[in-house]
Amino acid sequence: MTRILLIEDEPEMARLVASNLARAGLLVDVAGSIDLAREVLRTARFSLVLLDRGLPDGEGLSLLPDVRATQPGAPVILLTAQDRLDDKVRGLDAGADDYLTKPFFTDELMARIRAALRRPGGEAAAPVVCGRLSFDLQTREASIDETPLTLGRRELLVLEALARRVGRVVQRDALLDAVYGLDDEVQPKALDAHVSRLRRRLNEGGAGVMIHPVRNVGYMLKAL
Description:
With 224 residues, this protein is an alpha/beta fold. The protein folds into two domains: 3-117, Rossmann fold; 128-223, Arc Repressor Mutant, subunit A (Orthogonal Bundle). It has helices at 11-23, 34-41, 64-70, 85-93, 106-117, 153-163, 172-179, 190-204; strands at 3-7, 27-31, 48-52, 54-55, 58-59, 76-80, 98-101, 128-130, 133-136, 141-144, 147-149, 170-171, 209-214, 218-223. It has a five-stranded parallel β-sheet with strand order 2-1-3-6-7, sandwiched between helices. Strand 13 (209-214) and strand 14 form a beta hairpin. Helix 6 (153-163) packs across helix 7 (172-179) and helix 6 (153-163) crosses helix 8. The longest helix has 15 residues, at 190-204. The radius of gyration is 19 Å and the shape is elongated. The two termini are 24 Å apart.
């Protein structure tokens, strides 16, 4: 699951970036201050952190030790209006992995996110194959017999979580964490509805897989 923490205090900027990332199929949580970010960092596991430097309660760089302590291995991309060379050098020397100055284009941000998430050495993980279904963990694209499978964002997040543990039970709480952000309102049967829609799309496409429910535990993806 690709879950991103966006630490940004400007509401309109946060809304725009979070919306664009969500359209790309990513799960995004937003924190608008250092104190809130520290709390969120302790409650969830993130694949990447987008960090603004000018936060209302201090310098964003002060959060880098917290990120490294709570999110080992998660890259940090600084998003800031501070565009002087010495600002960039200070940010990178403080431990950030990349630096993007405002204003920026969404395509460039997405490219930098993809680059930051690549494994060291540039060797991509092999796609997960189950039945006739293939799921690329790098691009987060699904296909059946090489024909692309188009899914809604939540259904894609469910499939990603199941594909990462194919043949094993994924607990319900883990699926909820994978599909919903910390501020999302989750209806009691919402997850089951997403699983049902995903199951229907896989069956319609002849994926040769089943999503097996394990009563009171969770779901498991396996080949027929």
